[in-house]
Amino acid sequence: MKKVIGLVFFSLLITRGFSQENRLVDHNTVGWYTYTGDHKLANRWELHTEYQWRRVELIRAWQQSLARLGLNYKLTDRVKVSGGYTLFVTYPYGNYPSADAGVPVPEHRIYEDIQLDDQLGRLKLEHRLRLEQRWLGQPSDTNPRKLASWEYQNRIRYQVSATFPLTGPTIDDGEFYLNAFDELFISFGRNVERNVFNQNRISGGLGYQIRDNFKLELNYFSRILQHAEPDPLTQKSIFDFDSGIRLNVNYDLDFSGK
């Protein structure tokens, strides 16, 4: 628990530190609408499916689109490993868009996860460490509507999430619960520019379990993201401060036939 509190405190310090005068700050109100599903294929195998519809001004315009497909394998009741593919598209938004003339920029990712579950009384914690290999589309200087190349980068992510039942010792059908997470992103490799610290996300709110395999969650969401390149006029680093809502639908199916 001390480690969790320390991570959240560190994230708050980062938030204060990124508000200094030598940086440009862009505030955006966002709405992230997500679906996740881990569908059982066999005793230890699951098919992971995920889609995130990310909007600015809550829902008015595109921010990003994420589609993810992967496989999960349960090593034990507490440990899970995963891997898969992500298709990611970023649309121009905010006051400091990249030099893409308003064209969406695609990205391909391969990822590997390890997840550890902890139980502290009624509080359930999940620790996830993710490694990503990223291929980011680079628009052509002469025609930004065409891709000139793909830039390779690496990124590592650590997330700690928590759920807490509001009725009884466990979360059962027809009951509400509290949920929260914090995730830190660090980029590395020779192609990474200013954004070694890539981003940090904090989210928390209320969940409702309709059935054991069907949950809804409505959270407050906050993200700090550093742009890879500085502002071309001032050469100051650019940070997005996104805040708003995150609505998540979690629906799991059983394809194992058991």
Characterization of the model:
The chain is mostly beta strands. The protein has a single domain (2-251), classed as Porin (Beta Barrel). Helix content is 6%, strand content 64%. It is built from one helix and eleven strands, in the order αβββββββββββ. The protein has one helix at 2-17; strands at 23-40, 45-56, 61-74, 79-90, 105-120, 123-139, 147-165, 175-188, 197-211, 214-226, 237-251. Strands 1-2-3-4-5-6-7-8-9-10-11 form an eleven-stranded mixed barrel. A hairpin with a 7-residue loop joins strand 6 and strand 7 (147-165). Residues 15-19 have low confidence and may be disordered.
Which stretches are low in confidence, meaning pLDDT under 50 for 5 or more residues running?
A: 15-19
Number of distinct beta strands: 11
Give the structural class.
mainly beta
Largest sheet: 11 strands, mixed, barrel
Name of the CATH homologous superfamily:
monomeric porin ompg
| Count of alpha and pi helical runs | 1
Shape: globular
How far do the termini sit from each other? 37 Å
**How much strand?**
over 45%
N-to-C SSE string, H for helix and E for strand:
HEEEEEEEEEEE
**Major beta sheet, strand line-up:** 1-2-3-4-5-6-7-8-9-10-11
Indicate the percent of residues in helices.
Answer: under 10%
**Could you tell me the radius of gyration in angstroms?**
19 Å
Write the CATH architecture name.
Beta Barrel
Please state the average pLDDT score: 91
The fold-level CATH name is: Porin
